[in-house]
Amino acid sequence: MKSKKELELEKTIISKLDGKCLETAKLIFQDKEVEYLMNYSNNVSIKRLGFNDHGPVHMKRACLNSLLMFDLLQNAGVKFNLENEGVGNVIDSKVAVIIASLLHDIGMSVSRENHEIYSSIIGLNIINRILEKIYQHEFEKQIIVRSMVIEGIIGHMATKIINSLEAGLVLIGDGCDMEKGRARITSMIQRKPRVGDIHKYSASAIQTVSIKKGIKKPIKITVLMRESVGFFQIEEVLFPKISSSPVKPYIELFAGVIGEELLQYL
Fold it and tell me: Which domain of life is it from (predicted)?
């Protein structure tokens, strides 16, 4: 059964979509294979490996983050790669971003190492199934959008070079899900210190991450934290992802401790 938070996120995502994009999101939200993969990925991440949330709430938050940035870029007149290259339109790009962001971590059901590769392998049949319904009788479009989806999935760890704005949004949308709630369950069930705890404690320090229209650039990301340990999340997780994303030229990034002057990274 889906949690209240999952259902709230689904409702918010759906409220921002129409047409093919809305149909895409609904198909994924109704897909039992996706639901079970998301849940089991979280089981492996939290219970087996002691990591933070890599399940349905995280993937849906990452999707929402990506969509917020997508709309800001579109409103600023930025053309996405599929349109710019003459092989698709803005709707096709958004469909790709939705699918990639909602499936990007299902490979955690197998392993943390190379999970982005496993996500694309496990997700291939799901991607095909969704695209066959969205692009009936448009086989070439299915191939093009599928390739973009896989780029977004494989590129979300910033370990592989990506070259499209669409994939770059998936990468940053994932990185922006760093608020304290993401590490809450791990903190509750884990008592003994272990290597890598800095990720858990630094994530717990992050209070809010906001994505809004920028002043000089289309996107402004602001991260507020209650303790300076949260800067680890900025400098070791989010900033490297932004730096390796084709979306970087369109982003302003601010971060700081609540009540203190914000530091501007971009």
Answer: Bacteria
